[in-house]
Amino acid sequence: MKKPFVSLFLAVPLLFSAVPASAGGGAALHFEPGRSALVVTDPQNDFLREDGKLYGLLKDNLARLDTVANLERLMQAAKAGGYLFAVDPLVYGALDGQWTQAGALQRQLLDMGALRRDAAGGGDFYARFKPYIDDPATVVVAPHKLYGPESNDLIYQLRSRGIDTVVLAGLVANLCVDSHLRALMENGFRVYVVKDAVGAPGEAAYQAALVNFGMIANGVLSTAEAVAALRR
Amino acid sequence: MKKPFVSLFLAVPLLFSAVPASAGGGAALHFEPGRSALVVTDPQNDFLREDGKLYGLLKDNLARLDTVANLERLMQAAKAGGYLFAVDPLVYGALDGQWTQAGALQRQLLDMGALRRDAAGGGDFYARFKPYIDDPATVVVAPHKLYGPESNDLIYQLRSRGIDTVVLAGLVANLCVDSHLRALMENGFRVYVVKDAVGAPGEAAYQAALVNFGMIANGVLSTAEAVAALRR
Amino acid sequence: MKKPFVSLFLAVPLLFSAVPASAGGGAALHFEPGRSALVVTDPQNDFLREDGKLYGLLKDNLARLDTVANLERLMQAAKAGGYLFAVDPLVYGALDGQWTQAGALQRQLLDMGALRRDAAGGGDFYARFKPYIDDPATVVVAPHKLYGPESNDLIYQLRSRGIDTVVLAGLVANLCVDSHLRALMENGFRVYVVKDAVGAPGEAAYQAALVNFGMIANGVLSTAEAVAALRR
Amino acid sequence: MKKPFVSLFLAVPLLFSAVPASAGGGAALHFEPGRSALVVTDPQNDFLREDGKLYGLLKDNLARLDTVANLERLMQAAKAGGYLFAVDPLVYGALDGQWTQAGALQRQLLDMGALRRDAAGGGDFYARFKPYIDDPATVVVAPHKLYGPESNDLIYQLRSRGIDTVVLAGLVANLCVDSHLRALMENGFRVYVVKDAVGAPGEAAYQAALVNFGMIANGVLSTAEAVAALRR
């Protein structure tokens, strides 16, 4: 006889109200500076600035979630609490268009010249976040090239400081955030995703991200919950 | 001035009708035996057999898509065409429950004793697929432990044979299939996902998988399109 | 002006006498159960049993170092101290000979049928170690396929238990032990190699291993030093 | 009965004279532009310029092998033959000294301020190589952080262009070159090391590198052999 099993699979809508700040039960979630870090993916102009090449696709979701303000709240809380803040950008270089194996959307991004560090500044960091990113204690890792951190130094930078828990937010919810979630967890990190400090290209993509965050992550938090847990 | 840009981001519903069998345009998709492989994730009893621990969650989607028959069609086509067929199961061992960092659903799977190679046989291969899996030319890689192939020999087995293109199908659409898609592409593989040879725990999870497949993969195919492309 | 610099590069011979049990200075080395594990590579018949396919190449070095007894001392100390003991074998399967990219020695090993789990038992664990390996608390990871743990679950098994420090020993010193050292450190583990609980195919290969262990590792220990540090 | 076996293990000294330019037998080695790349690790001032922080340790070996001239010959041959040339530097950033898990030599390099992109220029590319490195067709990947390419985009850049074979040279023979050799081969690349276009901190370290190159790589070439094979 199978045990009764209230599945995350079926309980996805329930899950998002039911998951407490702590992944495991009644106790409040506890982050420890020195073992936990805030990781933000792709906080760059092409996603966030009004003239950004991808802003038009994200703006409704960004506005509904209040993503930019929430990301700033997370950065402030991480700095105030003495946590490592690591930024993991997506930047394409001059030769990256040569990739013969590029995936569907990646090919479009390459062809449209998105996320480059050129005069247009689409790959540069969004101005409002610069005080936190330029802080000398912030770790800015090398750009990733597809959606996850498999080809940059994020995991090395975290592991080399004894960090095993990540509070994860940024752009794009179902692409780079989801890929970072998966890759970090395949490496044995505990990962908590901040569901209103992300942005997605439309509601279907946002719902896709939520479904996966809920099943995969150690926990799914609101910014308010994450900030509270970083304050301890 | 930005160039006009019909985005995959916005065009997701359109995308699934619009993407031809070939990723790139008018020409029909061309797989080459020796460079391409069929990879199937998790073709195991706990997902597919009526008494499987997770079958109840998947059965509606499996029935609607005709997943089992489609997976068998793919296996037949791969064998008939002389392609490598690689199987990548998810199996938990006796000590895996010790993982202190396990994610939400992974913790549930561990606690409920799913996907074990024990007397109940939930981790064993589904009987209908055994003729293809037991074929001496089939590569059965070591089990993965979370959802992707980061911790097993799948990528090594493919790369060591000169394979750079994967036709991907199996269980569970938004978890192991999506994680394999992402991890293989982070390694530079071309990946084509077969959208009706997967299975998901409900329509929301299936839609989540489709959104991500469409943006990330090199192409999203029906079984009929994949079989045709494997026949060449 | 450059600071004076007594280099590990130049000080290799000195290093091996000078390195204390602790990596860092005067204090004795401190391993913590729960954060540290003993990892042994390739404790298998083809390397260690008199009729093993590779034994003839290793036997002088094994005898000089007293490797088998030292490995047993480490296993006993790990078990007595409550440390995780993880075994990482090298096993080739029936189809692995297909690898078109195999390296020089790997090709020879494949062609000679070494390290297989067949009737000859060359890939099976060496009998003297079985009481420790068969202990239900021992983690036996999936076989690696070249020399390092990149394609198996070793790192996942360690990270998922919160382990960040490895005491490393086993066969072959300059191949699998060195590759495990490098791969574990690339993942941010602290690694201490036990220099007399390894075995090499001749003195030149052993010296090669010592040179690299000394430069790369967090520390190089004798079995006596490692056992003392595991006892705390 | 064991088959007769002339082992690479025992035949290491023999190996280096016996290995032909082709890995496998009588036929001359054949590189294909489009599938093969030249990868050079760490061609930087701290290793190669007279005032470099590590130059003193390497200079005898560099002089004996004529490493700088050989590296230039390889770069010329790669460019002339239409091969991808990828450069993989080792650079430390301002915060990298925080790594609590740093290995023995890595700790020394961090503490002495080696390989930084600062006014001293130790981490900058060696002037004689700049014409090849500054060529717009050259791929300069993100810096690695320990010794191998696990934490940068080298493998992604190669795989995304369909490259499966690497001609490998650079600094330091037994550290970054050996680590790149191992990591590339764990990913299924064929790797040919150019034994006189490397540099080591002393003869023991160079011999250590040669022992490992001979056992692990697909082939060990002289610069003359590599240049000939790149010319085809």
Based on the model shown, name its key terms:
Rossmann fold, 232 residues, six-stranded parallel beta sheet, 6 strands, 14% strand, 10 helices, homotetramer, globular, alpha/beta
Give a description of the structure:
The structure is a homotetramer of 232-residue chains. The first copy, chain A, has 232 residues and is of the alpha/beta class. Chain A has one domain: 3-Layer(aba) Sandwich (Rossmann fold). Chain A contains ten helices and six strands. A six-stranded parallel sheet of chain A has the order 3-2-1-4-5-6, with helices on both faces. The longest helix of chain A is centred in the first third of the chain and has 15 residues. The N and C termini of chain A lie far apart (43 Å). The N terminus of chain A is likely disordered. Chains in contact: A-B, A-C, A-D, B-C, B-D, C-D. At the A-D interface, helix 7 of A face helix 7 of D.
Strand content of chain A: 5-15%
> Largest inter-chain interface?
A-B, 57 and 57 residues
Could you give a short account of the major beta sheet of chain A?
Answer: 6 strands, parallel
How many DSSP H or I helices of chain A?
10
Number of strands of chain A: 6
Report the mean per-residue pLDDT of chain A as an integer.
91
CATH architecture annotation name of chain A: 3-Layer(aba) Sandwich
Helix content of chain A: 25-40%
In CATH, what is the class of chain A? Alpha Beta
Give the overall form of chain A: globular
Distance between the termini of chain A: 43 Å
The computed structural class of chain A is alpha/beta
Q: Please identify which CATH superfamily of chain A we are dealing with.
A: Isochorismatase-like
CATH fold node name of chain A: Rossmann fold
Poorly predicted runs of chain A: 1-6, 10-26
How do the SSEs of chain A run, as a string of H and E?
HEHHHEHHEHEHEHEH
* Multimeric status of the protein: homotetramer
Give the spatial strand order of the biggest sheet of chain A: 3-2-1-4-5-6
Query: What is the domain tally of chain A?
Result: 1
